[in-house]
Task: structure prediction
Amino acid sequence: MIKEFATRLALLGAIGLLVGCGGESQQGASAPVPEGQLSGSEQAREFYAAHPDFFSFKTPADIPTDLAWENGMDQPDIGSPEAKKGGIQFESMQDYPRTLRTVGPDSNGAFRNWILDNVAVQLAHRHPDTFEYYPGLATEWALSAEDKTVYIRLDPDARWSDGEAVTADDYFFLFFFNRSEHIVAPWYNNWYSTQYTNISKYDDYTISLSMPELKPDILTQALEHTPAPEHFYQNFGPDFVERYQWSFIPTTGAYYIRDQDIAKGRSVTLTRNTDWWAKDKKYWHNRYNADQIYISVIRDTAKVFESFKVGDIDMFGLNLAEYWYEKLPDTDPDVQKGYIQKSVFYNQRPRPDYGLWMNSARPLLDNQEVRLGINYATNWDLVIERYFRGEYARLNSPQDGFGEFSHPTLKARPFDIDKAQEHFAAAGFTRRGPDGILVNAQGQRLSFTLTTGYESLAPVLTILKEEAIKAGLDFRVEILDSTASFKKVQEKQHDIYFGAFGRFLELYPRFWEYYHSDNAYDDAFLDDGSVNPNRQPKVQTNNLETFADFEFDQLIDRYTVSSDEQEMIELSHEMIQRHHDYASFVPGFVQNFYRIGHWRWVRFPEGFNHKHSDGAGELFVHWIDAEMKEETLAARRSGQTFEPQINVYDQFADEM
Amino acid sequence: MSFKLNPITLKKLRRFREIKRGYYSFLLLMGILLLSLVGELLVSNRALIVSYEGQLYFPTYGAFHPGTDFGFNYGYETNYRDLKERFEQEGSDNWLLMPPVPYSPNENHTVTGIYRADAPSAEFKHYLGTDTTSRDILARLFYGTRIALFFSLGFLAAVYAIGISIGSIMGYLGGWFDLLFQRVIEIWSNIPFLYMVIIIFSVIPSTFSISTRIAILLAVMVMFSWTSMTYYMRTETYKQKARDYVASARIIGASNTRIIFHHVLPNTLATMVTFAPFTIVSAITAITALDFLGFGLPPPTPSLGELLKQGTENLRTAPWIVMSAFGTLVVLLTLVTFIGEAVRESFDPKKFTVYK
Result:
């Protein structure tokens, strides 16, 4: 899905901020458009007229006849034919969503998964096993390589959750909407303005999209769209952010939210659309099975676990060793009696790049020797072995997990006190102070603030701190709340940051966001490529290392415009190597599995899940067996037991 | 300012000694305080004495000894537990003496190869077990308590200095000064203390050393806590002001400062002393609460609140964490409260009142 590539930091950390209790918009989303004001549709028409090159209205006769249409119907079905519809799934969230919008301020939170990322149907989706496309809102598509255009036939059955048909107009509106300043989302404004050159309508159910470059994943760019419901946004205007704050936007997916199911600060309930347009379609008919999903706010992880143990919540993530081995061990009575089942599932996909991000614009950290020393003085191996109990693997570069695009041989630097001290000595830190921390000739201590927003991973940092002292390096650990820490990092106020960016399922890694000098400084270089002496770090970008290298920029530019996969792979390797040499990132760890505990009545298809999935509930292939739930609860009262089930699904375990 | 204790005060102190529960609590607390001053001799991963190649070393205080000082091949701080083992294996004349608890509060020391909470074990000298990252709980409790105690003493001193001065001046001068400060205090004391501490502390740059950060935390807490003391002192001074001895002092020509601090203050001792233990209790509670919420002392500083938090998160799997932290807190607060009660009783002019 085309969506903002940003702050999905809610992976492990809690978001501990005040609940957003924004006031109800005076006029709702569905109020009549006031006299003298243009409706959303009228504004869109004006916009189309003002950009005739971008928005074209053609006839079916304009579609080239020599296209090779694909429909993706040859992929294996998803889910299990045994799945039963019905039941209520009970879930929890750590924080109440601050908005129900899916775009604009505060919309990029963990809750969006429930209403957009994992639920809304796009034109087509990557198959979670084969990585090929299977159809969603589109019935077939065709790529025309010479004019860098993808032609798409829409499914005429497709309906919004309020019953309106999904037509070509909704895709046009999507571009108007995402390019409008009213949505207060600069990333979307930029993406939809620069990554596409044209959208054409041939009839109500045929469109085409043109892209500026023929990238290897051009289909992703064309097909991973959810349209915007034009009929719903008739009151679209400068007050968009407030007006639509708590309106549920009609969806193409199976779940919608009724007004009465929003209990602000407490819970949200999703309801299954029994009349869903895709309910009998291949790839969709065995999914989205629970009638309702009740998601309540439970702020404290320990309490979520207790709720799970009493059966108020159906599933609980057991990724942390502490939970898997100690809090819900295999010997736990509920597991032994078969009420709760434990499952591990190995997956293959790009994974969050946990590591230490050094801000190379800061004093001392601008010295490569210091950065190299820090790489050697950071004992990730010990953290992985002792704290994560050897279950995680060392990340070798932030671009791991992209198949051929990842560097084949590069290894992260090991913990090596001697090498660390050599590099520190080369930077002038030769003498140890009375506390064992290195000092240079000016009496400056080798000490840096290590900031993080993951409270639950604080022990990792205290272990790193204790180990770094051995190499004469001092980390001042700073644990902030997740919002505050990301703010600090986005303002480029950090020395070293411990964190990770969530990764989407993509074909190749992104470099521009992380390493282009455009994202490091305002005017990083003069025209001749030399460093601009007056440059200032640029805030609000993902270049957390303030990485700026003139030649690297050229590589990124070549990579961005390249349409040759082999060339892109080579460029990718070269950039990964250069970035490694620059040493502003200490790769941390990756987890190549996920594991959960779930009550017996939560049923999964045989084989449990899919190769590229990233969580057990993500694809909604599970179902809630209401009869089994009654049976289990009764058995629990009477003491009857079942066969214990601890399942390991390692069919997709890759070499780590 | 010199405090000359009058016979009545001396009598009160004697009375305090007679109240055994309070008196022994006081002695015990003082004992803990003194012990914690020399804590490094009891709980530390540095050896007390090392005899190496005929030379004696006392590594406890002062600069660190790199491993190379004792024949290891590393330049960082010597691991004295390893050294002890080595000496024993070598069977040479070298020897060393470790403190009874041979761990520092920050080091991860695992006996199982993984970092997790281990149950108390005398064999490994983890007498109260370890926390979730294999740090010795006794060491963390010990230093956490030390910080909490000295923090609260500092808090007491600062709150008293400000509260007593302003309260006494308000009571003594009266008039517009009194009126103005009453309003100021009313407004000031309505600012929610905990939120302010959280907000202010969150913007303090982390480049400050841990001790500076603790000092700032103390200053912020004092800033929002001195007000309660002023009211008691104001009333008390008001009362004393009307007494003849104050009038006499004024006739002789004593300055206001002298009258307040030299004549009035000793006569308000009962109020001051009575509130002292409760101020300490509130300081310990506040710092523990802040740590529990994650807004107090920066990690990895040992603290009771942090241990309590870990304990509540691992109630089922590692009950020893919460037991140690909770037990310590209960003992500490009970001791202080016993002292407070005894002080109140001994300063009560009616000898035979009891709590009802």
The interface with chain A takes residues 62-64, 66, 74-77, 106-108, 110, 113-117, 132-134, 202, 206-207, 294, 298-300, 312-317 of chain B (CB under 8 Å).
